Amino acid sequence: MFTAFGWRKIPSARTLSIMIFLAGLGLTASVISLLYLSQHLIASKSNEIDQQRSVLSVEGAVQTSVNRVLSLVLDNAIWDDAVTQTYAPSLDQKWLYDSWGSGFKINNLYDGTFVLDDIIVSCGAPFRAGAAPD
Questions:
Q1: What single-letter DSSP state applies at residue 134?
Q2: Strand (E) or helix (H) holding 36
């Protein structure tokens, strides 16, 4: 009679099958370890890249805000219309809104405006951002 598993009774075949089984376990453990380590390295590298990009984004946002304020200061450093309007007999509220109030809606850099003279005395009523004057 033929038995399909008759090789199990041969001592050398039994030893060989145990060795093959242990080699398979070792190979499986090696592959799992390799996959885990590669995933760990990929995750740590992607976290590092994300952190660098976050820093660059924040630096870019801060620099953009600084550039906007600097541009506003440079635009208004020498401004003849402001002098003409400020030292007029009365301050034109519409001019004040058109010059400063409408820019608030776009740039969101300030909450209101005050027109001051050279000794820091108010030459006109303050304008609060939000509503246009009559």
A1: -
A2: helix 11-77
